[in-house]
Amino acid sequence: MNYLFRKVRAIGYSAIVFSTLAVSANALPLITNGSFDTANSNGQLTFNTSVAGWTNGTIAGGGPGYNFLYHSGTADTTGATGNAGLVKLWGPNDGSANRLPASSPNGGNLLAVDSNYQQAAVSQLVSGLTVGAKYILQFYWAGAQQAGFDGATTDKLQVTLGSDVQTTTTLNVANHAFSGWQSATMTFTASSASETLAFLAIGTPANGAPPFVLLDGVSLSQVPEPGAFGLVLTGLIGGLGALKLKKRMKS
Description:
alpha+beta, 6-stranded antiparallel beta sheet
């Protein structure tokens, strides 16, 4: 009987381990440096700053997109330098009590993507996708404004994975204000094993109050297939069966 119990228990445990690995494999992160914490300095991407895993787009006529990396606490203090000069955002340390925090909910560095001036997307090539599979994209984003300018702004993000394009809601940001951090979740279907994930900020107005979209905490994971949940259930049933058998043997 001890031998039989050991066999049943082994089968149950093996099913649990196998099913757990199957689900975990589908949940493996696919984004490199989604928190933007691996970067060489504060500043404009491509111009004087690089962020591991990410590519800065090029504007019409050449030149890098006006997209900036800020270390925690620098957006409304020391700011960051780009090809058109120093850029800071309105915040508590820059003359506006708008509650712009030192960092995003994800902590550490964050990106500030210009919604209108020298507009270009920030992107990353994502590999290891399964054609036809669904993927969940999650990120934090917010609407902010460049310090030294006045007026209300609007902000939204156009998000692309391969040929699939989705758009966030539009944030209306009052003069010298900050929208507060938002969390976004989108579902995409892969049409190729490797596809480009791109974030393009879109906002108004073009002049007078430059709008910025802040971005951080980007993650992408495959939606577990229904069969994986069946494996989990099989493992649990096997494990419970082994426990019940053990109790009967003891009694």
